[in-house]
Amino acid sequence: MASEQHTSGDELGRFLRARRTQTSPESVGFTPGAGIRRTPGLRREELAALAGVSIDYYIRLERGKETRPSPGVVDSLARALRLDDEEHHHLRELAARAANYAPEPPPPPSRTVRPHLKLLLETMRPHPAYIVSRSMDLLAWNPGGLALYAGMADWPARQRNLARYLFLHPTARELFPDWEPLVRACVARLRAQAGTSPDAPDLVGLVGELVLKSPDFAKLWERYEVIGRKKTQKTFHHPEVGVLTLRGQNMHLEGTPGQRLCVYTAEPGSPDHDAMLLLDMTAPEPARHADAKSGRPRPAQS
């Protein structure tokens, strides 16, 4: 149990250290003295003073030795680091988890998508739509939803993951002209998920793979950002239908293990809408299998 508490305390410490080293003295009212600062961002003693805690106590927090900070200390650290609401909430979740660590990691969530949700994807055509897991696995899709990510269909179904695509697929950087802010938001989302479920097998496996295979991912992962600047519009330089800009919407699916529905739309009559229609018309239809009992064909989209 002691080692498990140490693990959860480490996650709290990593977040504090990342935010401290990325907070400039000037942004919190300090005037750096003469000479070269060897520490990026705030020094530990500066943050401790701002938060009203002893330097020894703060060092124990950052090293994972102290796992039960009071709500008042957590809030003081958040104010000292100028955390926004989402980062403040994440810090509270990390502190709560450090104090009440569950010894058994949770099982990976089910990848099963209910039949009525697959039907919903079909009724959304010609709008590209798909369902993803909390770790961004692509679980189900309509033809445009898969074809939108050019080259994704070349991967086996269980390998299809949006984060893996962004960092490891050779087409991704060409598909997205704003690739850099897109991947920062992607990593921030994964960081927030992994921060409160660091032992979850689906997240551990994906993060471990991307840290090893993508230097860009590894660098962003170390920054420990937990919020991303999400854009409601995305521009795709698609090799099949040309440039199209679509408005995206993500929705949590009630009664599912963290699954989200993602759908893209375009203004009717616009060139973007025409390109979207062309994408749906030219995308390969999902394979169909006969229903064993009725003989009727049924779509298989995941």
Protein model, in words:
Residues 41-88 form the HTH cro/C1-type domain. This is Helix-turn-helix transcriptional regulator. The chain contains 13 helices and 7 strands. By secondary structure, the protein is of the alpha+beta class. The strands form 2 sheets. It has a 5-stranded antiparallel sheet. A hairpin with a 3-residue loop joins strand 3 (233-238) and strand 4. The relative contact order is 0.12.
List the helices and strands and how they pair.
Blueprint: H1 2-21, H2 44-51, H3 55-62, H4 71-80, H5 85-99, H6 115-123, E1 129-132, E2 138-141, H7 143-147, H8 162-168, H9 172-175, H10 179-196, H11 201-213, H12 215-223, E3 233-238, E4 242-252, E5 260-265, H13 271-282, E6 288-290, E7 297-299
Antiparallel strand pairs: 1-2, 1-5, 3-4, 4-5, 6-7
Helix pairs in contact: 1-5, 2-3, 2-4, 4-5, 11-12
InterPro entries: Cro/C1-type_HTH, Lambda_DNA-bd_dom_sf, MLTR_LBD
Protein name: Helix-turn-helix transcriptional regulator
